[in-house]
Design brief:
Layout lengths: L17 E2 L11 E5 H12 L4 H8 L3 H21 L2 E5 L1
Parallel strand pairs: 2-3
Antiparallel strand pairs: 1-3
Helix pairs in contact: 1-2, 1-3, 2-3
Length: 91
């Protein structure tokens, strides 16, 4: 049986839950989903420039878990930007 998932603290929600490339019609867009904990990890590590151990403590997870969340979030955002996809933040 899998271990239950620890709740992750999210201090700040995004101002918008959906981002898309300018000038592209919605019906022609592919999309990528960024979990809300991934958004929070990006915000803490990249926007606020916090060390991983400090950001992990604020999210209520271990440093290793924080690093995994951040790596997945960066992958989603990079793939969406490289391919001109929309990004939907949910969770």
């Amino acid at each position: 049986m899998a271990r239950p998932r620890k709740p992750r603290n999210v201090e700040q929600f995004p101002p918008s839950g959906f981002y898309k490339p300018e000038g592209v019609d919605l019906h022609r867009l592919q999309g990528a989903v960024l979990p809300i904990d991934g958004f929070e990890a990006l915000r803490l590590a990249d926007a606020e420039r916090l060390a991983h151990h400090v950001a992990a403590k604020r999210m209520g997870v271990s440093r290793a878990t924080f690093s995994r969340i951040l790596n997945r979030a960066r992958h989603v955002v990079a793939k969406a930007l490289a391919n001109g996809w929309a990004i939907r933040i949910e969770g």
